[in-house]
Amino acid sequence: MATRNESASAHTLVRSLGFVPLTAMLVSGVIGAGVFLKARAMTCNVGTPGLVLLAYALGGLLTLCGALTFAEMGAMLPRAGGQYNYIGAAFGRSWAFLYGWMETILDGAGSMAAVAMVVIIFMNDLLGGALSTVHVQWLAVGVIVAVSLLTLASIHANGMVAAGVSALKVLLVAGVGVAGFLLSHGSAVHFSQSGAAGLCEGVPPGARLGLAGFGAAVIGALWSYNGWQMLLSVAEEVRDPGRTIPRALISGILVLIVLYLFVTAGYYFALDPLAIANVRESGSVAGAVMVRALGESGAAVVSAGMMLSTLGCLHIMDILASRVPFAMARDGLLPAPLARVSPRTRSPVGAIVLVGVCASLFAFSGTFDVITDMIVFVLLFFNSLSVAAVFVLRRVLPDAPRPYRVWGYPFTPALFLVTAAALMINTLFAMPVRALAGIGIVALGLPVYAWYARGRPKMRADDWLEQSP
Description:
The protein is mainly alpha-helical. It has 20 helices and no strands. Helix 7 (133-151) crosses helix 13 (296-330). The longest helix has 35 residues, at 296-330.
């Protein structure tokens, strides 16, 4: 029979992530394809380079507000699963379960499938379009399996891989910006011009110019910053979380803001706004800039770079998504095998396999784009619920240890919540059917929760504190 210590060890992660690998995981997990692609649509949204840069700056500010708030709760509740714990402590276990259900089955797996497909699409571009749809699907599953095998290694090893990939990503994005400024023979005159008359392929008329256009541009910028909120899923594997988590969140977001503003400015120095607005929907602004700077070989460089970028993003997504079902299973809300960790690597094997299998099924189904569209609304909702938790926990747990307190409280989290509410309303009106369908899919988790929660006593906010490793 297993002893108490052996039983606890089977469900215990190890704290081995320091400031550098944790920051690298944030940067690598956030930089995907958005920064290479979004400038075209954002130019069509607002017309001028100045407003595009303002949208990126505002998106970065809002992201920083959310990160500052999450830093307080991550330092206070450094448990695996991140938002699952903040929502549970503030609003109850049922809401925490619904977040975890959505993140595990839908957002985590669906997004991984989408990113894996993008990796192979970029590979296909390098091969001249030689792959069929079936080949793309099988290769995407192969990428998911390969990344899952890497994720099974220790968190220390994965952190080192993330640090290396993150450095390459930063060099890539910064390199595109440098090429735009130094090798493209561009002009600062472009910053005073407009791309409003461009072709703007695929950009709806209702999202062009005016307040609606600027709002669409901010949403585009936020998409480029998306993914930072999942970093707290590995809080239980961070050394000295009270200091390391806030420093990594703030430093990582600031790096992204500077990097995005620099490379976007480089785009507009190299190309005038009209040329950027005329880029094909299937093309990338970064590719157009590199072709101007280096000739046709520049496009191949960008395709290879985007492939590396999305592959690194997939790696981090797998690590972070797997910690959510692990935390739920450890709390008795999912099958117990999902809470077991490898005695050698201390990684949650069952949870990693679950996420990988679900992602592979999405890749074969071809429906993941619809699924991820449907949960845009609920993602905004749960992110808002996580930020709102700081107000609740300040009230119900006033004496809880808080190694870090959010700067600018209560205005910083309030700004995030007001903006998120506006975006939710916009999403509800713009995609009402998919928003409501997303709510319905999340609600399917209620009978699953009822099954696993039956007979269990209610948890109070301080119970979540007591369970923190």
